[in-house]
Amino acid sequence: MLRLITIGLAMMLSALSLGVVLAADAVELVSVWNPVGAEPDGCRPALTGGGSPPKWRNVETDADNQLALGVAEESRDATDYRFPLCIVEGAAFAALGNVDVSVRLRPVMGKVDQAGGIAIRLKDPRNYYVVRANALEDNVRLYAVIDGDRRQFAGKGIKVASTQWHALRLRAVGDRFTVYFDNELLFEATDRRITEPGRVALWTKADSLTEFVDLTIEALP
Question: Going by CATH, does the domain composed of 3-219 fall within 1.20.1200.10?
C-alpha cells in the first residue's frame, strides 16, 4: 500500500520536477508516494565515521495522537563514532548558507545513544555543522565537523525525554548560530570554520532509533 510520507517534502519535489520556481521563503520538504519500510526518496543516505552503511527507512509513527509518516535510521549499529546522515535532495537545497531549519524528532531507543539532529552547510559527509539533541545525556549541542572530526563549540543541558516528540531548530546567518528547542530559544553561538554554503541533512548517532517528521527549510538572505 502506497502512502504519502510527510517528513515535510511533496509539493516541492513535484514543482521542481515540473520546472516551477516556488516563491515562498519557507519551504516544507515533502516526499513522494513511497511505501512504509522503503528508502526515503527525499533524502539520500551518507555516513560520517565508521560502522555499517546507514539504513534510512520510511516509518509510520504517532505524533500528537495522530497517524504520521516520517523517516528513521534503523540499522542499530552500535559503533560509537558513527553518524548516519540523510542528505536532502533537490537543486533548491544544493547551496544554502544562511538558513533556518527545523524538524520534530522523537528518540525511541538506543543503548549507546538516543540522539537526532540537523546538519547544515554540508559540503560532504566529513564537513558540516550539526545541532543535535540527546535523550541519554539530556542536552543539546552544536558541533562543527571538520575532516570527519566532530568539534563542539556550544551547548546546553536540558531535559530531552525519550519516546516523546521534540522540536529542534537551527538558524544560521554568517558566523552566528541560534538554537531553539521545543519552540524556546536555547542558546546562541558564533563560529567561522565553515563559511561556504552546502546541503541540509538529518543526522543520528550510533544505535539511535530516532524518528523525524515535519522538516522545514527556509533560505535566508
Answer: no
